């Protein structure tokens, strides 16, 4: 067997239908997480810093540079991670080793759960700093829209990353029927199958052939006449 029903994936080496792949809930959540991370990252980088009558730029979140740096870090790493796991999802069916599939699922569970927590921290941190920001610190309301966008999409990212964690846990719980795999599959190698034998079960075949005389050679010899004795 070659990977039937292993951690929610199909047969190893099977053709992947792009349309079916795009309609999967995990793919939709992955794309949404990528978009949300991009919005958080781009909002802070582009309009998260304002100039208040000097050459020095200040973070719009209560002039706290740590808030902006944290938001940029979470958004950028989340953006890259979504791209990586998207490719992993697309190539997951081509992984023949059960151990490698299990490792990939465990990495996804750990990272997705951890990043959902980091986005929760980001949401709380940005909301706290934004609530302490006064109108005097933002002349002409500069950067206000970017700050609100970063906060809102940090909250949305909590939901999508939590959803990805749940989906990964579901795939892990599906597991695999270990009876469908040979020892070579468990070790990550390709299975080797012997040539089929036509001999009945329980009988052994000889590797060397013994000479057998053609049939009917002895019976074809001319019979000899014996004189009866009276």
From TrEMBL:
Segments for region (Disordered): 188-230
Polar residues biased stretches: 195-223
Protein name listed in UniProt: Synaptogyrin
Compartments reported by the entry: Membrane
InterPro entries: Marvel, Synaptogyrin
Similarity comment: family membership: Belongs to the synaptogyrin family.
Organism field: Pagothenia borchgrevinki (Bald rockcod)
Entry keyword set: Membrane, Transmembrane, Transmembrane helix
